[in-house]
């Protein structure tokens, strides 16, 4: 059922004067869209007064006073609260016995009144250790305790009693008691800090209206940096033991640039008065857009040596992404979780635009093309592809479709819509939307309606094609030449498959190139709006007959490009002769797409790599090539040993190491090439070189062997059981006892080709009651079975597949997202594919997310088998 039909059904169910009383809420941990809509129809003007007592111990206590208007007091009402111990409950001044099932409190109708209600709940709860709710971490270096909150998609009720749905916005006034050396960050800046009983009492003013998942509170003995050089006061927080790894000047610079850009672009000043950013441990995702108190994953943004250009660009991009959310997501918020895609797509689009236009990383769109957009193309060609806009039945399903389609296809769709409508029309439509719906909730129709009004055109057809239909189209140039000139030119569009037949409208640039004495030269390019199966392009008639045609020049559109035979041959032979780095990226991608489609043998692709990669001088594109080499090596390893894989593996090692040595004058290129070397080194000679670099016997000029690099080397040596690697691991654990060192040690331990080690860690992963923080369990999952350890993978494959249904029932979505991605066995053989196919049939009742993981694993295993078959050398 389409989302708009679901909305209509809900309105019918709850809007009629004589509608039947709604069924009681289901007794489980999740909130359905239907129940959320029923509650939102009755509740309004929500306000929270929150009082927390934090001691640093494993549990915390709180008192919530929740005030709200109730339009209908004839039915019971639920308040969300997860796994707490309730010490008292009063409703409108009356003490009542809690009716509580560990997921939500039910308030009896007789205790409620039509009009203003006040509910006060005192409770205790364990801190979480899985990154949701109020997470607690004990720093292994100094024993200090840190806490932070994380509520997306619907985990605020893991910290305090709340109407945990985005369309019940509220105001929040908080007071927090903490140990004396702690600091507290929340949506507002504190108004007072008092010394109380050996600790501190932090008081904050009432916030502006926010959805529960946008509110936050973080507390601990954080190191704090401040900067007041911009329009808004900025602070940066990090654990004391990692403070030396933080580069606050970079954080403040990009933050200041972004706030200036977004103030101007949106035409609405930043609304939340101050801008805090916190680096936090054990984080589930890259970052989270809590209003005015944004959290970032330490593991992604902390580095034990000076950041490379790529790391700085990543930092700038994520800062901009989360900052865009302060307007689009926090100021204006989706009504329900089906709108999460628009929230993330818009932030991905605007984050890239802001990075390109307000920082030194003017090529940010090239990085977007080779990173997020390629992930979206891959995702959109899987059997699990889905429309951008999809129904979300309950909070259990909120993250089912949060993937590269949500983030990067959605962002690409907005990017090409901006080209279709015009940049200023698009910006005006966004401004109008934010002004109209600020501090409110809005829908996709509200957003599209604002753009349509600004553009003065109907976007209904565009919306149906792009947002409600799945799949990626392919475009190809169909042309003929006479007497050296183009005589006819048609742009052809094909559907993803018979099951996904939609053809779409979008605007692209078509470029023609000719071989010349100095390489490929652009001879002509035109902008074309196409739709349907065929669009004639008369503007190209009479142009010089091209050696290469690229029908998505400058990457305006979202479509797979199928090169014609002549253009493909030109691309394969002339990569180094293409001056434009974005076009070079796109041609490299065309070759890699052909490998993944089992049309171009992998060995032919690797010949192209060996011939062209060492000469690459574009830093962003080199990173893309290195990633493709890593993936190619993964395929070779999964296929099993052969004389070819051994030979080409050594060639890749030698290429990467020579390039590392040659790049000594440029640390960015050198570190990128050394990363490539680390990812292909597997021969005894290469592993020996790594060991010599680690112990100082081999010095590579310019290369800084930082703590991070030491761990990467130790991980690689253990992966291939290099002699003495276990002793190196033990010594490094003594040398680096930090949290990141512990994570690296787990990775290096579980990756060893040792059946006993695998079995022990498999037991730890399977123990859902383990006290090991989930961040470390997830690390073990990700490193347990590298591609070349197919035989070890097989030893537990049947056990893991056989128990998948039980684990799926017992574990939550956070656990299963990691388990499904890393632990479903696939070993690049026809037997492995058959085993996965059988599991799909045997396990029809898996959760949506786990079922998708199983389907994707099978499809990618089939792809590996097909790539192997296409290689005559195997």
TrEMBL record:
> What Enzyme Commission number(s) appear in the record?
3.4.11.2
Entry keyword Transmembrane: no
Gene3D superfamilies in UniProt: Neutral Protease Domain 2, tricorn interacting facor f3 domain
Q: Where is the signal peptide?
A: 1-19
One BP term from GO: peptide catabolic process
SUPFAM superfamilies, per the entry: Leukotriene A4 hydrolase N-terminal domain, Metalloproteases ('zincins'), catalytic domain
User: The organism sits in which domain of life?
Assistant: Bacteria
Q: What is this protein called?
A: Aminopeptidase N
């Amino acid at each position: 059922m389409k989302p708009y039909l679901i909305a209509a059904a809900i309105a019918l169910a709850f809007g009629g004067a004589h509608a039947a009383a709604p069924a009681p809420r289901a007794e489980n941990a999740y909130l359905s869209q239907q129940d959320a809509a029923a509650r939102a129809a009755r509740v309004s003007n929500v306000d929270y007064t929150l009082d927390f007592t934090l001691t640093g111990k494993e549990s915390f206590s709180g008192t919530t006073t929740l005030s709200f208007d109730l339009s209908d007091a004839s039915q019971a009402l639920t308040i969300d609260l997860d796994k707490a111990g309730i010490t008292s409950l009063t409703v409108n001044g009356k003490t009542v016995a809690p009716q509580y099932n560990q997921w939500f409190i039910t308030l009896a109708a007789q205790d409620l009144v039509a009009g203003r209600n006040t509910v006060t709940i005192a409770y205790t709860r364990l801190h979480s250790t899985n990154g949701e709710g109020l997470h607690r971490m004990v720093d292994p270096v100094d024993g200090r305790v840190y806490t932070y909150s994380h509520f997306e998609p619907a985990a605020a009720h893991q910290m305090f009693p709340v109407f945990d749905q985005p369309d019940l916005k509220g105001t929040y006034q908080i007071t927090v008691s903490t140990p004396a050396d702690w600091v507290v960050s929340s949506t507002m800046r504190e108004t007072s800090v008092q010394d109380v009983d050996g600790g501190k009492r932090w008081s904050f003013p009432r916030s502006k209206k926010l959805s529960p998942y946008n509110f936050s509170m973080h507390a601990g003995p954080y190191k704090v940096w401040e900067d007041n050089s911009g329009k808004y006061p900025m602070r940066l927080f990090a654990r004391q033991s990692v403070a030396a790894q933080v580069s606050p000047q970079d954080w403040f610079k990009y933050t200041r640039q972004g706030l200036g850009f977004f103030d101007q672009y949106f035409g609405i000043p930043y609304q939340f008065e101050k801008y805090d950013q916190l680096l936090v441990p054990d984080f589930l995702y890259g970052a989270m857009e809590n209003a005015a108190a944004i959290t970032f994953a330490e593991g992604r943004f902390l580095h034990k040596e000076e950041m490379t250009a790529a790391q700085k660009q990543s930092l700038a991009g994520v800062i901009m992404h989360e900052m865009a959310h302060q307007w689009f997501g926090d100021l204006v918020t989706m009504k329900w979780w089906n709108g999460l895609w628009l929230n993330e797509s818009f932030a991905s689009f605007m984050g890239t635009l802001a990075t390109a236009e307000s920082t030194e990383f003017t090529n940010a769109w090239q990085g977007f093309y080779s990173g997020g957009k390629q992930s979206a193309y891959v995702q959109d060609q899987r059997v699990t592809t889905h429309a951008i806009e999809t129904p979300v039945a309950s909070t259990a399903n909120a993250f089912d479709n949060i993937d590269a389609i949500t983030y990067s296809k959605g962002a690409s769709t907005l990017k090409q819509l901006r080209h279709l409508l015009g940049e200023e029309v698009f910006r005006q439509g966004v401004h109008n939307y934010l002004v109209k719906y600020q501090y409110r909730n809005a829908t996709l129709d509200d957003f599209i309606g604002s753009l349509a009004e600004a553009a003065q055109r109907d976007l209904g057809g565009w919306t149906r094609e792009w947002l409600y239909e799945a799949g990626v189209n392919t475009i190809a140039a169909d042309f003929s030449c006479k007497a050296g000139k183009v005589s006819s030119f048609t742009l052809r569009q094909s559907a993803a498959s018979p099951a996904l037949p939609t053809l779409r409208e979008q605007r692209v640039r078509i470029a023609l190139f000719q071989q010349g004495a100095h390489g490929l030269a652009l001879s002509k390019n035109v902008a074309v709006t196409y739709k349907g199966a065929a669009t004639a392009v008369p503007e190209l008639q009479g142009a010089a007959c091209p050696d290469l045609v690229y029908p998505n020049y400058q990457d305006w559109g979202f479509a797979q490009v199928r090169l014609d035979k002549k253009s493909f041959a030109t691309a394969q032979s002339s990569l180094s002769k293409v001056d434009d780095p974005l076009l070079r990226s796109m041609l490299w991608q065309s070759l890699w797409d052909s490998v993944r489609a089992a049309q171009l043998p992998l060995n032919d692709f690797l010949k192209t790599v060996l011939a062209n990669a060492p000469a690459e001088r574009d830093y962003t594109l080199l990173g893309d090539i290195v990633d493709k080499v890593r993936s190619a090596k993964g395929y070779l390893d999964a296929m099993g040993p052969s004389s070819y894989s051994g030979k080409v593996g050594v060639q890749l090692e030698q290429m990467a190491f020579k390039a590392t040595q040659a790049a000594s004058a440029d640390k960015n290129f050198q570190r990128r090439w050394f990363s490539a070397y680390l990812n292909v080194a597997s021969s005894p000679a290469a592993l020996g070189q790594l060991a010599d670099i680690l112990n100082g016997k081999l010095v590579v000029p310019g290369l800084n062997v930082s703590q991070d690099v030491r761990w990467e080397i130790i991980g690689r040596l253990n992966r291939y059981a290099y002699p003495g690697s276990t002793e190196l691991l033990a010594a490094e654990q003594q040398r680096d006892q930090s949290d990141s060192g512990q994570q690296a040690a787990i990775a290096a331990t579980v990756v060893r080709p040792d059946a006993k080690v695998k079995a022990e860690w498999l037991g730890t992963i399977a123990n859902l009651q383990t006290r090991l923080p989930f961040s470390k369990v997830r690390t073990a999952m990700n490193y347990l079975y590298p591609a070349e350890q197919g035989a070890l993978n097989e030893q537990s494959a049947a056990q893991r597949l056989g128990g998948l249904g039980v684990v799926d029932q017992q574990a939550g979505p956070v656990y299963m997202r990691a388990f499904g991605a890393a632990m479903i066995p696939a070993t690049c053989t026809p037997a492995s594919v058959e085993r996965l196919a059988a599991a799909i049939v045997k396990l029809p009742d898996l959760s949506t997310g786990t079922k998708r993981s199983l389907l994707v694993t099978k499809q990618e295993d089939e792809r590996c088998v097909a790539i192997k078959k296409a290689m005559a050398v195997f």
